[in-house]
Amino acid sequence: MPLLTLRRLSGRVALVSLAGCGPQSALNFAGTDAAEIGRLFYVMLGSAAAIWILVMGAAVWGVLRAPSEHTERHAKLLIVVGGVIFPTLVLALLLGFGLRLLERDPVPEGTLRVEVHGEQWWWRVRYEAPEGGVTVTANEIRLPAGRPVELRLTAAEVIHSFWIPSLGGKMDMIPGRENRLVLNPERPGLYRGACAEFCGTSHALMAFAVVVEEPEEFEAWLAREAAPAAPEDTMARGRELFLGAGCGGCHRVRGIVELGEVGPDLTHVGGRRTIGAGLAETSVETLASWIAAPSAMKPGVHMPGYAMLPEADIRAIAEFLYGLK
Ligand code: CUA
To answer: Taking 70 as the threshold, does the pLDDT of residue 15 lie above it?
Structure first.
């Protein structure tokens, strides 16, 4: 093959492999479970490729190199060995290899428990708080590296599927039922999770950030997250407007307004990487756009728009929320 063509080809292969990386890739392993699934994928791929080459090789050899007649006995032997024994053996071996992955060890001591509740179209996340009780957050999951986590998965109205490709396989979230998924995150980094089951209009806009960090960083974050909101005094106007517009009827901001249960908890919303469940980077601008017209960003969203408020007021509310770190 000429060198130029070879170079072009290897460039293409590199491009294709790059498409398999990134924050939401099942081939970018950051945990032992994802690595096991990845190994299964590569074994299946390798076996399929080897068998394909074998069959194609036999076909080419039969047509070009040895186009002679077979005796009936020889032909029958070929069918029994090549058509029955060989595929049965190969499929049984691959099945056995795959079934091994279904074995689950009992949940070890010291496993972190996180509840994730699928809503349309966002994620309610509950941690056991360091001082007892529960810390509620949304749309961002932080996990300590090197410690197993048991995710308890439930759903509100419809079936969702919880999936962090870099950490492991997916698991359905079914209303009226709790499914459990144990993951072992190993490599710190920022990953992306997504809903993997069609759940309505904005299914494709139901993602979340996953932050795997060193255990000390995680503990510090959880302590901060468990604390009530502490907005700066300069945000007093935004806070008044937030309360005056009735936002607290749906959203809880611990330490300020404790009623809202319907929408995401906003106690530390400014400290999350994204708004709208992975939709846009958190900033005053994106928060203001969301408050004015959430359905323009996420069709079908339950939250009404507040475009009737003066622009300056919307910005003040957005600044107040952005300040909730
Ligand atoms: Cu939730 Cu698709």
So the answer is: no
Nearest C-alpha neighbor of 31 from the set 182, 140, 183:
183
Determine if the pTM surpasses 0.70: yes
* C-alpha distances out from residue 213 to 146, 147, 208, 221, 309, Å: 9, 11, 16, 10, 40
- CA 318, CA 282: separation in Å to the nearest integer? 10
For residues 298 and 77, what is the distance between their CA atoms, to the nearest angstrom?
62
206 lines ligand 1 (CB under 6 A): yes
pLDDT at 10: 47
pLDDT value at position 13? 44
Within a 10 A sphere around the Cβ of 158, how many other Cβ atoms?
17
- Tokens matching residue 222: 């959880």
Buried/exposed code over 162-175 (b: 16+ C-beta within 10 A; e: otherwise): bbbbbbbbbbbbbe
234 pLDDT more than 60: yes
Contact residues for 306 (Cβ-Cβ < 8 A; gap 6+): 245, 291, 292, 314
Strand partners of residue 123: 118
Whole-number Å distance between alpha carbons of 190 and 142: 9
118 lines ligand 1 (CB under 6 A): yes
Cis omega (within 30 of 0) for bond into 163:
no
pLDDT of residue 290: 97
Q: Would you place residue 21 in the very low, low, confident or very high pLDDT band (cuts 50, 70, 90)?
A: low
C-alpha 199 to ligand 1 mean position (Å): 4
Ligand 1 proximity of 117 Cβ (cutoff 6 Å): no
- 292 C-beta closer than 6 A to ligand 1: no
Q: Identify the residue whose C-alpha is closest to ligand 1 atom 1.
A: 160
Digit-coded pLDDT (tens) for 247-290: 999 999 999 998 889 999 999 999 999 999 999 999 999 999 99
CA of 271 to the centre of ligand 1 (A): 24
Q: Are 322 and 312 in contact (CB under 8 A)?
A: no
